[in-house]
Write a structure and sequence with these properties.
globular, alpha+beta, single chain, 4 domains, 15 helices
Length: 565
């Protein structure tokens, strides 16, 4: 029986918690932690000594193994979690000595209260990602107050899901690095929304009004995609603005002021329209961010919203949306405007690059404030074409291999660049040896990544791909967050060798091209000099990617830090 199945059973059956000499049945002491052998798994895991009455008063499915006892070990896996035993497991030799916990015993039983992050988790580990998780919890809590009873119940279950999946970090016997914790919290954010662990409902099961409000008031939901049937009602519109932040404003203030500027310019309130404006990600000066605006008719009159969207569309088409002037006269550069027909923006009414950025976009670049080598953009922005600086690689631009427009763009955050990880994949498709055959395969991969309901990535997921011709094919490139490696998308770049390399190695020319690409990324400041090289299977042990022969090859490369065979 698998560990995940056993964890699910814990929700329904009475689990007996271990009693041992270190945790005296009459004296405890309460709060003592240790590395304890679990009869259920036949392996060691972290545990805390707690009073029986505390355990039974808080959780109904767990009690002490022996009836006549006042204290016993409460095992790390007693609460269902995605990490399971792999997260809770400890080394009985290294962690032989028990340690007194500095935490209140209630910390091991989170109740969805957002203060749990500061009063419990941060006392064990003061990583920045814990503060971010607490802020997101508070945002979700505020958003849930505007939801239906079902939506509120779901929001509570999400908060509890994330907290229960982080309990293992509380134990001194479990090592927790800030970088790994950041990846875990990032992954849990979407996983607890999308899957059913502590609730029978998922985000995608909520009513449209609830999802509408959540999408406007919480930054998490933009990371979660549902199916193609999640259409925006005829009386509402979803607008996405990609803008450069040239100010010192925080993301919430910036989102509000951009919404106010648009509402004033297009007389939304006078036309009987309301709106919600939100910036789903953190924002730093000089970097591009996404602003999501929900525009809707107060009386559910689709004529009003349609007229407003047509007005905006004509404005953008005529090149008048290059900048927005906020109420304090600060200027925000607008890069891209999209009107979406679905919540996930899989279907669009219109999508326009702003006139000022078009020459740069046509050259395969992007506009920003702090470039490496840039030109051809309006105002203070410049056009960045970093791949033209690397003379020892040939990068085929997206337009040259026939890429379709991305349905959404997410840029890597400042705090995660240059990236720490570079991950190697293979496409598990046919191989190719020229631009024509490689382009056909890439177009098929992009279509699969966008349309496959098990993926729905909004675009081709890899940062780059390499063909048997030794040419590098541009995917998300250096600056955009891809969808290639769960838990590493926001802190890593990835290249995928086109083909299946389980029984054969890629061509030498392709291998050298990827090595040159990595060095180019290091030289130009996109990849940290002390980066870690991984195969896809190092992050996902259930996956054979990048193929056995390619995986053996990259183990010989400099900076490889995965699990050597």
């Amino acid at each position: 029986m698998s560990a995940s199945l056993l964890l699910q059973i814990l929700c329904f059956q009475l689990v007996l918690v271990v009693v041992s000499s270190e945790c005296d049945r009459t004296k405890g002491p309460p709060g003592l932690t240790g590395c304890i052998h679990s009869p259920l798994y036949s392996k060691h895991q972290a545990a805390v000594c707690l009073p029986k009455k505390t355990i039974t008063s808080i959780t109904k499915h767990v009690t002490c193994r022996e009836e006549n006892t006042e204290f016993c070990w409460y095992l790390c896996t007693s609460e269902p979690s995605y990490g399971g035993l792999s997260a809770c497991q400890c080394d009985p030799i290294y962690h032989f000595a028990e340690k007194n916990s500095i935490l209140d015993k209630k910390c091991y039983f989170p109740t969805k209260d957002c203060s749990w992050y500061s009063t419990c988790l941060r006392k064990k580990n003061n990583c920045q990602s814990i503060s971010e998780a607490e802020k997101e919890c508070i945002r979700l809590e505020k958003a849930s107050k505007k939801l239906s009873l079902l939506g509120q119940s779901w929001a509570d279950s999400v908060k509890l899901c994330i907290q229960r999946n982080l309990i293992y970090i509380l134990y001194p016997q479990v090592l927790s690095e800030c970088e790994k914790m950041e990846s875990m919290i990032h992954w849990l954010t979407t996983t607890c929304y999308y899957k059913e662990l502590h609730s029978k409902y998922r985000y995608c099961d909520l009513s449209f009004p609830d999802r509408f409000k959540l999408d406007a008031l919480s930054s998490i939901t933009s990371l979660v995609s549902c199916n193609y049937e999640n259409f925006v009602p005829h009386w509402a519109k979803l607008l996405i603005f990609y803008v450069n932040n040239n100010t010192e404003k925080d993301k919430d203030t910036l989102a509000i002021e951009i919404g106010e500027a648009l509402a004033k310019s297009f007389s939304w309130e006078e036309s009987g329209l309301s709106y919600e404006s939100v910036a789903p990600e953190t924002v730093n000066k000089g970097k591009s961010i996404t602003i999501r605006i929900h525009l809707y008719s107060k009386t559910k009159d689709n004529t009003k919203t349609n007229n407003a969207i047509e007005h905006l569309k004509n404005y953008v088409e005529n090149g008048k949306m290059a900048i927005l002037i906020l109420k304090d006269n600060t200027i925000v550069d607008v890069k891209h405007v999209i009107s979406c027909m679905t919540i996930g923006c899989h279907l669009q009414y219109f999508s326009y690059q702003t006139t000022s950025d078009s020459p740069c976009i046509e050259k395969g670049g992007w506009c920003q404030q702090k470039p490496f080598s840039c030109d051809h953009c309006e105002g203070t922005k410049q056009c960045c074409l970093p791949h033209e600086e690397c003379t020892n690689i040939e990068i085929i631009k997206r337009k040259d291999w026939g890429a379709s427009e991305p349905q959404r763009i997410t840029y890597l955050k400042d705090k995660n660049t240059p990236v720490k990880y570079f991950i190697i994949h293979h496409t598990d498709t046919d191989t190719c040896n020229n631009i024509e055959s490689c382009s056909a395969i890439l177009q098929g991969i992009q279509k699969d990544h966008i349309e496959n309901p098990e993926k729905i990535y909004y675009d081709i997921g890899y940062s780059f791909l390499v063909g048997g011709d030794g040419k590098i094919y541009e995917g998300q490139s250096w600056s955009r967050e891809g969808a290639h490696t769960l838990g590493k998308n926001h802190v890593g770049l990835a290249v995928s060798f086109i083909g299946n390399f389980s029984k054969k190695k890629p061509k030498t020319i392709a291998i050298q091209a990827v090595k040159n690409l990595i060095q180019c990324g290091v030289d130009k400041g996109y990849i940290k000099p002390d980066y870690e090289l991984l195969g896809h299977r190092d992050q996902d042990p259930t996956n054979e990617c990048p193929g056995e022969m390619l995986y053996k090859e990259i183990q010989k490369w400099d900076k490889f830090s995965g699990k050597k065979a």
